[in-house]
Amino acid sequence: MKFPKSPAPDVLIIGGGVIGASIAYHLSAKGVKNILVIEKGSGYGGGSTSKATGGFRAQFGSEINIKLSLLSRKKLLEFEDEHGISPGFLQYGYLFLAQNENELAKLKAANEIQVTCGLTEAEILTAGEIFKLNPHINTDVITGGSFCNTDGFISPMQILDGYIKSAKRNGVVFQNDTQVTGFDVLNGRIQSVTTTKGIINPGYAVNAAGAWAGKLAELAGLELPVKPLKRQVALISEKNILPVNLPMTIWVDNSFHFRMRDKQLILLMPEEPENKMPFNYDAESSWLKKVSAVAMDRIPAMRNCSIDTAGSWAGSYEMSPDEHVIIGKAPGIENFYLANGSSGHGVMHSPAIGQLLAEIITDGSASAINIHALRAERFAEGNPVKQIEFF
Ligand SMILES: Cc1cc2nc3c(=O)[nH]c(=O)nc-3n(C[C@H](O)[C@H](O)[C@H](O)COP(=O)(O)OP(=O)(O)OC[C@H]3O[C@@H](n4cnc5c(N)ncnc54)[C@H](O)[C@@H]3O)c2cc1C
């Protein structure tokens, strides 16, 4: 169905994933009345949100990511009271494993930043302490690690659902099957937005297009360095092979990690995909073989298990050059806002990002956290966010 006449929402949000829905909700909660969310898919969350495995952590290697996590964590703990839907937050922890002094030094350096930011429960562990926490891994070559018991797992689609339902209750309109195909930008302002359902004349527009954000920005003549990156997930066929309450367990050397989800073990390991099509979502057999070999070596219980090839999946991370979100006003277009490039952390940070962008749009700046470091201009200025890299 086409728009009967060109709608003129105060705020048009492009993208119906968890980030767009969170922004819509937070704007509506601040009293913004006329909000339209459009989504090119036939439902909501069909982009990366539904592909996310649902990890949550505050153990990051940069101050700003830790602060985004701490704000999100507070909001996740209040989520069910606020929205009447559980975010599925299970604080089983994140456990990082080092196999040599060099890897351990990185975890220690990151831990210092974490503790300084208030994540005082994050701790450095010995190999013996690690084995007590997760006796299901091969600890032969583990030197030490880091653990935070308030990290854990969340449910991406329940969070999306909560934000959409609350936003709708506040009057936000969601329209699917509607793709933005162009912008008319004049004198540094978006005048109109062309979609497959007709023209929209918004006061403000928000780019919440996830891994498609770079392409969307290009339509407005804006160079936004956000690119899709394929990430694959292997599902193990056998059920209940490990306890469900194990922490997310991650080896620093190659970022191989695993967790139990819905009674099944899932394995992840970032590797260059064979298929170079950015939005190809086949779990590749060569990758499944590789990840399975690593898992058999590191998780003894895996030796009697098999990969569920049909149930394994892939999706896109939305990568920015420094692997941190870009949030705020788009350079050179005064009524265009960005919430892009979370680089694989978009679900866990969506509560914070929604609140912060709503503050920027309505009040002119974010007050919950100082997010100057996340401005879009940082790349052109040669000032990307720096972090201790261990994952
Ligand atoms: C395998 C995998 C595992 C992950 N694990 C985690 C995890 O454990 N924890 C975590 O926090 N994050 C994780 N992520 C990352 C997370 O999924 C993303 O960061 C998050 O979903 C981004 O949300 P979004 O709303 O920006 O993007 P999306 O959910 O992709 O939403 C963007 C929407 O914009 C729509 N769109 C695009 N272009 C247009 C257009 N022109 N017109 C209209 N609509 C448009 C798309 O259809 C899409 O629905 C994972 C991702 C993958 C792929």
Give an account of the 3D structure:
The chain is α/β, with parallel strands linked by helices and 391 residues long. It folds into two domains: 1-92 and 151-226 and 320-391, FAD/NAD(P)-binding domain, CATH 3.50.50.60; 93-150 and 227-315, D-Amino Acid Oxidase, subunit A, domain 2 (D-Amino Acid Oxidase, Chain A, domain 2, 2-Layer Sandwich), CATH 3.30.9. It contains eight helices and 19 strands. The protein has helices at 18-29, 63-83, 101-116, 127-133, 156-169, 213-219, 285-298, 346-363, and strands spanning 11-14, 35-38, 55-56, 94-98, 123-126, 144-148, 152-153, 173-175, 180-186, 189-195, 198-200, 204-207, 227-239, 248-251, 257-261, 264-268, 313-319, 326-329, 336-340. The chain has an eight-stranded mixed beta sheet with strand order 5-6-4-14-15-16-13-17. It has a six-stranded mixed beta sheet with strand order 8-2-1-12-19-18, sandwiched between helices. A hairpin with a 2-residue loop joins β15 and β16. α1 (18-29) packs parallel to α5 (156-169), α1 (18-29) runs parallel beside α8 (346-363) and α2 (63-83) packs across α5. It is globular, with a radius of gyration of 21 Å. The model has no long low-confidence stretch (mean pLDDT 97). The chain binds flavin-adenine dinucleotide (FAD).
Structure in a nutshell:
The chain has 391 residues and is α/β, with parallel strands linked by helices.
